[in-house]
Design a protein that fits this description.
single chain, 237 residues, alpha/beta, Rossmann fold, seven-stranded mixed sheet, 7 strands, 38% helix, globular, binds S-adenosylmethionine, S-adenosyl-L-methionine, EC 2.1.1.33, tRNA_(Gua-N-7)_MeTrfase_Trmb, transferase
Length: 237
C-alpha cells in the first residue's frame, strides 16, 4: 500500500483513529497477504454481483464488520447470496479472513464473501442504486460527544445513500447498545420515514435479537457488561 491511498494505514489511522492495532499473528498475516487480494473488492469501478461473484445474486453489505462474526454467520446461512464487508481496522479484517478461510473450525470456507479493507461509504457509493437486498450497520462507533455527532455513521448523508442503494423491500439492520446513539438514530430515521418503514410492532421487537441475526463480538461484550442491546429492522419502501 502506498502513502495517502485510501487503504494506507496512515490515512486509515487519520480517518478512524485506530486502523492499526496489535501485531498480526503469522497465520493472520498470511491470510492478509494471500487471501485478501483474492477476495478484495476492486479499488475502482462498479461494485456489482456479476463483477464480484461472477453471477447475479442477492447482495448484502456490512459496514464496519469488526471481527466479521455476523458477516461470516450470514454468509454461511445464505450460500447463494453475495456478501460485501468493509472494515478499516486490519485486526478485524484478519479475523474475518479466518472465518472466510474456515480456519476457526466453526464452518467451511466461504466463497460468497468479498472484503474491503477501508471505508465503507467509498465502496457503497460504487454500488448501483437499488442493488442491495440487505445493509447492516451493527454497533457503529458511538462518537457520544455532541460535538462529534457529525462523525456518526447514522447521519442524513449516509442514510440517504443507504436508501438509494437498497432495492424496494430491501432491509436495513442496525444495532446499538449506546443510549446516545439510539436517540440520535431514531431521530435520523424519523426524518427518513418516507424511505424506510420501521418493522417494529412491540417493544420486544427491538429488545430481542431477531432470528437470522448472528451475534457480533461487540454485542457480546456489551451484554457481558450488562448493557441493553437494541435491534432495528427497517424495510426500504
Ligand atoms: C464498535 S465497532 C463494531 C464492530 C462490529 N460491527 C461489531 O458489532 O462487533 C465499529 C466498527 O466500525 C468500523 N468503522 C468505523 N468507520 C468506518 C467506515 N467509515 N467504514 C467501515 N467501517 C468503519 C470501526 O473500525 C469498528 O470496527
Amino acid at each position: 500500500m502506498t502513502a495517502n491511498k485510501p487503504g494506507d494505514p496512515t490515512t486509515l489511522n487519520r480517518l478512524y483513529g485506530r486502523a492499526k492495532g496489535k501485531a498480526l499473528r503469522a497465520g493472520q498475516q498470511g491470510l492478509v497477504d494471500d487471501l485478501l487480494p483474492r477476495i478484495a473488492v476492486p479499488d475502482e469501478g462498479p461494485v456489482t454481483a456479476e463483477r464480484l461473484f461472477g453471477r447475479p445474486c442477492s447482495l448484502h453489505f456490512e459496514i464496519g464488520f469488526g471481527g466479521g462474526e455476523h458477516m461470516a454467520g450470514r454468509a454461511d446461512m445464505l450460500p447463494d447470496h453475495g456478501f460485501i464487508g468493509c472494515e478499516p481496522f486490519v485486526n478485524g479484517v484478519a479475523q474475518a479472513l479466518t472465518h472466510v478461510a474456515g480456519d476457526n473450525g466453526s464452518q467451511a470456507p466461504l466463497g460468497n464473501v468479498r472484503i474491503h479493507h477501508g471505508d465503507a461509504l467509498e465502496v457503497l457509493s460504487r454500488v448501483p442504486d437499488g442493488a442491495l437486498s440487505f445493509l447492516y450497520l451493527l454497533h457503529p462507533d458511538p462518537w457520544p460527544k455532541a460535538r462529534h455527532a457529525k462523525r456518526r455513521m447514522m447521519n442524513d448523508g449516509p442514510v440517504r445513500m443507504f436508501a438509494a442503494k437498497l432495492k424496494p423491500g430491501g432491509e436495513f439492520r442496525f444495532g446499538t447498545d449506546h443510549p446516545v446513539y439510539l436517540r440520535h438514530a431514531l431521530m435520523v430515521m424519523q426524518r427518513h420515514r418516507a424511505d424506510f418503514e420501521w418493522l417494529c410492532q412491540t417493544p420486544s421487537d427491538f429488545l430481542t435479537r431477531p432470528g437470522g441475526w448472528p451475534e457480533t463480538r461487540y454485542e457480546a461484550k456489551a451484554r457481558k457488561q450488562g448493557h441493553e442491546v437494541w435491534y432495528f429492522r427497517y424495510r426500504r419502501r
